[in-house]
Structure formats: C-alpha cells, structure tokens
C-alpha cells in the first residue's frame, strides 16, 4: 500500500500559508508536494497502461479490464488487482482530507503564479476535486455499457465473414441494428454523468468536459458556425458527386442516397481506387514509413518493436496509440491493419502520435508531458493528410497522383471535408443529448444528418448509427477536439508544407502540455488559430469560389 505524505508536511504548509505570505515559499512547498505526488503516481500509471495494452493485444481479458478501470474517474490506477484495491488506493491518494484542505487553501491564496507550477497544480487539484465527488453510479453504468459495446466490436470481423449470402447493405444494416440494444444503457449513463457534475457546479457533463479541456463553450459555438459557413457550399458540391453516381454505378442518381451508399462513397474518398492492389510485405511497409519519418529526423524502430499493428480476426477494427511510460520511452501502437496502401493514412497518424510523445522535452514536468488532444490530433491529421494533399509525399511513399479521381479533381482531401461536416453533426448531437437525455436520440441523429450531411433516408433506413461510434459512446468530447485539430493541422501545413515537417519537433512536440493549446498554436505558427487556411487544406487552389478570409463574426468572404 502506498502511503500518503506525512501530516507533518501539511502542518509546515499551513504554517507557511498563514504565517508567511511570501509567494516564493508557497511555490517551493507546492513544488515539494508535486514531486512527492509524482513518486506515488508514476508506478501506478505505468502498470495501468500496461494492463490496457494487454487487454487490446489479447494478453488479458478486455472486459475485466473495463470493469476495473472504469470504476473511477482517474487515470492514476494500477492494472493488476481488484476494483476494490483501485478504489482504496485512489482514496488514499486523492481523498486525504488534509491534502485536499491544503490544496484548497493554495488555490484560494492566489500565490502560485509560476506558469508551469500553476498548470501542474491545476491538473492535480482537478483530480482531487473529481475523486472527492462520488462517481460510483456513473462508473457502474459506464462499465456495463462499454462491456457490451466492446463485446460487439470484437465480433465484427466474424459477423461479416459469417453472413455471405446477403447484400453488403443488408449485412451492414443488420450489424448496426445489433447496437440498438445499448440505447437504454447509454441514456442512463448520460443521466448519471449529468447528476454527478451538478455537485461540481456544472449544468451538464458536456460543460464539465469542455472546462477540463480548456475549451470555452462560446468558442465552440463560434467555431461550429464558422466551419459550417466555410464548408457548406463545398460540401454540397462533393455531395452531388456522390449522389450523381459518378463515383459508383451502385449509387442512385435520381433519388436520395441511402445511408449505406453514403458510407460507401466516404470509404472511396478514404481509400481511392488508385490504391487498390498496392500491397507490401510487412517489412516493406514499415521500411516505407521509417524512411518517410527519417527524412524529418524521426525514428520509429523502437515504437514498432513494441507495437501490435497487424491484422487478426479477433481484434477490434480500430487504431490507437498508447503511451505506457515516458521515462522508459515505451510508446506503442495498436491496430488491425494489413500491409497495403490503404493502411498508410492511419499508420502515419498513429506513429505521429507516438513520435509526438517521444519528442516531449525531458524537462517538461510529469503532469504536463501528455500533449493536449487538440495539439496531438492536429499533428496526427497534419501527417496523415499528406497522402492525399501532397504530390511530393505521394511520390516519396510510391503512391499514384489522385487528380483524375472524380472525388479529387476539385478537392485535395475530400474525406476531410466530409469529416468536418460529420464533426459538426456529432458536436451538436453530443451537446444536445447532455442537455436533454430524455429525447429521442435516433430522431435527433437523423435530423442533424439532414441538416449537415443532406442525408434524409426513408424511415426504415434510419438506423442507430450513432451507437456504433466509439467517439460518441466514450462520452469524452473528442469530436470538439477534432474540429479544432483539423484547423490547426491546416495551419501547420501552411507553415511546414509537404515534406518540410522536421521543424515541428521543436516548434510543437517538445512542449507536451506545458503551454496551453491555444498559446502553443500561436507559438508554433506565428498566429492564433486561423480558419483562413481550412478550405485550402481540402480544396484545390484552382477551384472556383475559394475563400480567403473570415470576418470577425466568422462569416466567410469570397475571392474577388
């Protein structure tokens, strides 16, 4: 059992706060507390991360890990014992009344002004407040939901292999319907989350998430409005390509696209037909990635050795990056990929995450090493989009030019444009279900599909697609992060285009989360987040009606 810091230490702090108001002394004492706290947290974090990895790679039970890891609201766990052990361990760390009382006094004192110390304190103090709150009902419901969700996900490959005598659209519809049974569990989890954050002063859980991630809700409204205005006409043009049947003879040029046809068109943007048949050996695939990253001074050899990226039938069809331990430089990637051209995009994305964490300066304090989601996803999108947008990178990776593809004639990256529209839908969906968890989620989903994606299928085709999305079920607000991240990636590409990505190690990656995300965007690109670059990131320069600037209200202007 890990022991808490001795009460004597707290008496010293109390004495310092009330007998001496000197900022230097208070910051020194807080620094001592944080150092001791890191000593307690690091080994637990490492063991927990290894347990997560074991669950994905098949070395341990995935469901059992979920039952254990979702018992609390904190990442600071160990992955080798019972749920009760976790809870007791966390209580000893974060529920110690003496520690919380001291941290609360420090918070109210206003004496911590050093930027790095203040950011560390903020993260630790939020964990104390969070654990002080009672999340038992929420975590019970979350665990039950995710158990069922991942049990379905792990059966996906076997399901489609077993149903071969039906059309692809029919098989897809039946698979989506399998998830409808999770709706009640999802709704009850949302209600529990909302109840739990009321005591923390938030109207609903979405507001709590955004506050924890330093994203003002007003900025989300401004961002979604601006992106909607920028992308609407371009998306309508792209949608007409899908609807016209020019992309696929199976599409219906005279009627409304079905959801299945829409998903099919999107897959053809992500995996262009020009890439069909381009396959490699596993060694050749990794050599290609290694050479690409090496041209910018990055090395992926150790990351790959620890990773599990190749296809197995019983694996989940998704890709993730894991930081097991910063001190050991233990960074890994989980995927279920084949060594083919279509896998280059997701592997560039995940390896960039690993390289990002690998490049964090060793002097960055422990609690600030993990980059903010907006920053790390922005870097991932910056790298993975190059397979579509950069002829230089395409040549470097041995990929054919895409300009003759019907989706790519006017668009450099049509899948990103579609992704932006999906994010607008997802964000409005997420906000709304937390504001009113009693509403008809499926009705809301298809109303938003009509508004943002122009999809309005027959009633029998309005299936609960939203229940199949980890980014919605996970309830962690990642859709908002992605929206800001795409804009950041476009700004990075403007500053460091094509294969000129070496500077981002010093400009972006080394900071971890030691600088607020909005300030790091300014530091790395020379200006705050600027949507002027967004349209150029997915549309060709020769296209008509290319937007060049935004007014202060977010309304786009057209080129004269």
Report what the structure shows:
This protein is mainly alpha-helical and 560 residues long. It folds into 3 domains: 132 residues, no CATH class; 218 residues, Neurolysin, domain 3 (Orthogonal Bundle); 115 residues. The radius of gyration is 24 Å and the shape is globular. The N terminus and C terminus are likely disordered.
List the helices and strands and how they pair.
Blueprint: H1 7-19, H2 23-57, H3 62-69, H4 83-94, H5 97-109, H6 115-132, H7 136-154, H8 156-162, H9 168-177, H10 183-198, H11 205-212, H12 217-244, H13 259-270, H14 282-294, H15 301-306, E1 308-310, E2 320-325, E3 330-337, H16 344-358, H17 373-384, H18 386-389, H19 391-396, H20 414-435, H21 441-453, H22 470-473, H23 478-495, H24 504-507, H25 517-525, H26 534-538, E4 547-550, E5 556-558
Parallel strand pairs: 1-3
Antiparallel strand pairs: 2-3, 4-5
Helix pairs in contact: 1-5, 2-3, 2-6, 3-7, 4-6, 5-6, 7-10, 12-20, 16-17, 17-23, 20-21, 20-23
Count of beta strands = 5
Q: In the CATH scheme, what's the topology name of the largest domain?
A: Neurolysin, domain 3
Q: Hey, roughly how much beta strand do the residues contain?
A: under 5%
Order of strands, main sheet, comes to 1-3-2
The N- to C-terminal Cα distance equals 69 Å
Give the number of domains.
3
- Whole-angstrom Rg: 24 Å
Largest sheet: 3 strands, mixed
Mean pLDDT: 85
- What is the count of helical runs? 26
**Second-tier CATH architecture of the largest domain:** Orthogonal Bundle
């Amino acid at each position: 059992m890990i022991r808490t810091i001795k009460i004597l230490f707290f008496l010293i702090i109390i004495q310092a706060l009330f007998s001496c108001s000197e900022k230097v002394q208070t910051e020194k004492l807080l620094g001592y507390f944080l150092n001791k706290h890191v000593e307690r947290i690091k080994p637990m974090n490492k063991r927990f991360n290894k347990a997560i990895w074991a669950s994905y790679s098949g070395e341990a039970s995935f469901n059992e890990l979920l039952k254990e890891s979702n018992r609390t609201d904190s990442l600071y766990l160990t992955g080798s014992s019972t749920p009760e052990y976790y809870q007791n361990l966390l209580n000893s760390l974060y529920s110690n009344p003496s520690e919380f009382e001291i941290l609360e006094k420090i918070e109210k004192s206003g004496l911590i002004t050093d930027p790095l110390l203040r950011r560390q304190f903020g993260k630790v103090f939020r964990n104390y407040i969070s654990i002080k709150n009672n999340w038992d009902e929420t975590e019970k419901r979350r665990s039950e939901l995710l158990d069922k969700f991942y049990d379905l996900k792990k059966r996906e490959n076997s399901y489609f292999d077993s149903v071969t005598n039906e059309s692809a659209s029919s098989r897809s519809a039946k698979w989506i319907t399998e998830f409808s049974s999770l709706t009640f569990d999802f709704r009850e989890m949302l209600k529990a989350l909302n109840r739990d954050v009321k005591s923390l002063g938030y109207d609903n859980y979405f507001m709590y998430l955004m506050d924890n991630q330093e994203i003002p809700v007003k900025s989300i409204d401004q961002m979604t409005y601006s992106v909607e205005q920028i992308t609407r006409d371009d998306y309508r043009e792209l949608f007409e390509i899908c609807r016209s049947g020019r992309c696929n003879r199976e599409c219906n040029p005279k009627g409304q696209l079905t959801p299945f046809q829409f998903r099919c068109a999107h897959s053809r943007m992500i995996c262009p037909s020009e890439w069909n048949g381009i396959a490699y050996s596993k060694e050749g695939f990794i050599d290609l990635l290694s050479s690409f990253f090496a041209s910018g001074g990055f090395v992926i050899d150790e990351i790959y050795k620890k990773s599990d990226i190749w296809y197995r039938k019983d694996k989940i069809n998704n890709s993730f990056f894991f930081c097991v331990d910063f001190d050991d430089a233990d960074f890994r990637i989980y995927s279920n990929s084949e060594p083919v051209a279509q896998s280059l995009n997701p592997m560039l994305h995940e390896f960039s995450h690993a390289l990002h964490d690998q490049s964090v300066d060793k002097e960055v304090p422990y609690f600030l090493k993990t980059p903010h989601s907006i920053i790390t996803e922005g870097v991932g999108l910056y790298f993975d989009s190059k397979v579509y947008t950069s002829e230089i990178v395409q040549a470097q990776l041995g990929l054919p030019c895409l300009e003759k593809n019907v989706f790519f004639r006017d668009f450099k990256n049509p899948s990103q444009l579609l992704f932006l529209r999906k994010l607008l839908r997802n964000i409005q969906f997420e906000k709304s279900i937390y504001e009113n968890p009693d509403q008809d989620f499926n009705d809301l989903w298809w109303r938003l599909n009509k508004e943002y994606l122009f999809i309005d299928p027959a009633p029998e085709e309005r299936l609960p697609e939203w229940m199949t999305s980890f980014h919605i079920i996970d309830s962690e607000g990642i859709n908002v992060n992605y929206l800001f991240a795409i804009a950041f990636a476009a700004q990075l590409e403007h500053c460091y285009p094509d294969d000129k990505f070496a500077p981002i190690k010093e400009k972006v990656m080394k900071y971890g989360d030691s600088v607020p995300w909005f300030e790091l965007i300014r530091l790395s690109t020379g200006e705050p987040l600027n949507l002027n670059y967004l349209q150029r990131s997915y549309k060709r320069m020769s296209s008509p009606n290319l937007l060049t600037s935004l007014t202060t209200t977010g309304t786009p202007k057209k080129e004269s």
